[in-house]
Amino acid sequence: MTGQPIERETSSPHRVLQKSLDLPCGAVLKNRLAKAPMTDTLGNGEGDSTEAQVRVYEKWSEGGTALSIIGEVQVDPRFPENPGNLVLGANSDQQALQSLVKRALIEGVHLWPQLGHAGARSHQPVSEPKGPSALEIDGLQCAGMSVEDIQELPDMYARSAVCAKNAGFSGVQVHAGHGWLLSQFLSPLFNRRSDGYGGAIEARCRIVLEVVDKVRRAVGPSYPVGIRINSTDKLEGGLTEDDALEVVRLLDQTSVDLIDISGGTYFPGAKEISDSPNQGPYFLDFARRAKGVTNVPLMATGGFKRREQAVGAVASGAVDMVGIARAMALDPRLAKVWLTEEGGDPDFPIFESAPPGGITDWYITRLLALGDDQEDEFKLSLPSAMRLYRERADQHSVQWREKFSRPAVSG
Ligand SMILES: Cc1cc2nc3c(=O)[nH]c(=O)nc-3n(C[C@H](O)[C@H](O)[C@H](O)COP(=O)(O)O)c2cc1C
């Protein structure tokens, strides 16, 4: 059973991170460190992978992580989070996917795309956003989904999961966090429906369970299916910890293999997901509560900056896996470093008064440098990083519109 405190070896406590983890489906993660999903904008603007993206994932795999999750991969090109993301569908460039799989699925590493749909927060320049409910507030306007729209979702996620499996990825993560579509359904801030998909948390969670169920049936019992959820939206009127605990309880009744606990939401006025004034790790108290209601292996992501924090989280039994985003952008070999006797922690940059979105943009441009093997020379200031990010998004938007506004050619 997972979640038991692991006996900490007093002389080499980091060894708890070296232990493998069995997932309910039978797959094995070789250690307790995962590269958390990060949108890298390294797609080609048409939803397909590029050499630079392959290179970044290759680096993380060589760097010793047990699990590498590809940041938001779109299940529907009409509703992307970013036009630099991948799309997993019948028209995906199979050769590009094969290259990604071949170079990153090495050394026993698991590579899972994070299946996402941005819903109400779809990238405006290429999308007509649609969420659980129509919203008209400052900074967020979207249409509301019909019941038919909602009922299409499980098949849509399942189709992308099958594409992932056929392309050779070793599992998938369903994205139900951070204020993207499935998280919007869970959140009363976005979900104001009064039908069977809105209201109490059981109803708000219904579509999430339907998606998980359809994905599982599509990929079979022995293929890893994970999910990312919020422990809280961190906003007044959003998903609370008590409701999130109910979500965990409901997921416990499904066949998910790994619940990745995160928090925070993209909503007007909300703080950045990645950074928090708290020292971190951010979500361990919730993970401990979640352990009380599920036997599904748990991962927590957020605020792990030093090895001793990861060791403590796993050794205490609060979580089974530790998810790491920014520290692995700073050092793609971090897992290997933390798994060795010697260890060593990355130096985090300090940003004074970063504008909204600025820190994430800076890390994204850091990923671009990794993809070009330019990380040693990487010195971008926050304003330059934000400018570069915007320019790329504009350029990708043009390509995305060109590709996806045309009807697909059949046959
Ligand atoms: C550049 C960047 C891109 C991100 N993109 C995603 C994403 O696509 N999907 C997601 O669930 N979280 C995304 N996140 C959030 C991270 O997965 C993670 O939850 C957050 O950064 C906190 O972890 P950390 O303290 O280890 O950075 C992103 C974070 C960063 C820095």
Secondary structure elements and pairings:
Blueprint: E1 21-22, E2 28-29, E3 33-38, H1 51-62, E4 67-74, H2 94-104, E5 110-116, E6 130-131, E7 135-137, E8 140-144, H3 147-167, E9 172-176, H4 181-186, H5 201-204, H6 206-219, E10 225-230, H7 241-252, E11 258-262, H8 284-291, E12 298-301, H9 307-315, E13 321-324, H10 326-330, H11 334-339, H12 358-371, H13 382-404
Parallel strand pairs: 3-4, 3-13, 4-5, 5-9, 6-8, 9-10, 10-11, 11-12, 12-13
Antiparallel strand pairs: 1-2, 7-8
Helix pairs in contact: 1-2, 1-12, 3-6, 12-13
Bound molecules: flavin mononucleotide (FMN).
Cα separation of the termini: 48 Å
What is the string of SSEs from the N terminus onward? EEEHEHEEEEHEHHHEHEHEHEHHHH
**Overall residue-averaged pLDDT value:** 94
- Distinct small molecules bound, one entry per kind: flavin mononucleotide
Q: Structural class from helices and strands? A: alpha/beta
How much of the sequence is in beta strands?
5-15%
CATH architecture: Alpha-Beta Barrel
* Helicity, as a percent range: 25-40%
**Low confidence ranges:** none
CATH superfamily: Aldolase class I
Number of domains: 1
- Sheet with most strands: 8 strands, parallel, barrel
